[in-house]
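Figure 2 data, in text form.
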Amino acid sequence: MTKLRITFINGETLDINQNTLLDLAIYEKENYFNMSSRTTKNIVLSESSRFYGPISVQDIHDSNLVMNLLNFLHSSDFFYVHSQPETIYASSSIYKIEQKD
């Protein structure tokens, strides 16, 4: 079975395969405009995280698992392995992704 090894900037590695379920967390800011008077606009930023998943690398029908993983992670701030929610990884801390056969 083909697997991917994700190496983070601190040297830690994470091995996943086609059957590994991942959850994504995307940090978003939503603008709410409050027109309290005709001359004053108050902008309130509410911060939230949205969770998507679980998903697997094989959900997209492409033989290149590295590209599939990049498609999943390109716009997410954080992710975790579905069966191990106690460890959350920052997508921005990925140093390299290798395909291991």
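Caption note: The longest helix spans residues 65-73.
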